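Hey,
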Amino acid sequence: MSRMIEDPDLALRLRGWLTSLSGNTVPITYQQAAEALGLTPPRTIQRVALALEALMCEDVAAGRPMIAALVVSRRGDLPRQGFFELAVELGRFPADPTQHEAAYRQELARIMEQR
């Protein structure tokens, strides 16, 4: 599965930055990611989201925990809805939305174990 992003290098840069973060600084927000990558409007959050989707596809294909779980909405401590939709589409999360938060917490724990 391939997601179209305008700047394929953005996903690579985002993975590098997320990998470099210490355990006590994550999760981070989409806005923090956009700022760290030096993105400027318009559509900064959308560009981060598309890069995260590309990373999700790569991680699931490689059997790794999804590093995108480290990025959450500023309106809470969960990723945006698109994260859950793609996680279901990729077969990583169950289709039942009532199970999404628990599946996310497990995914976050898996990625944190690797840090």
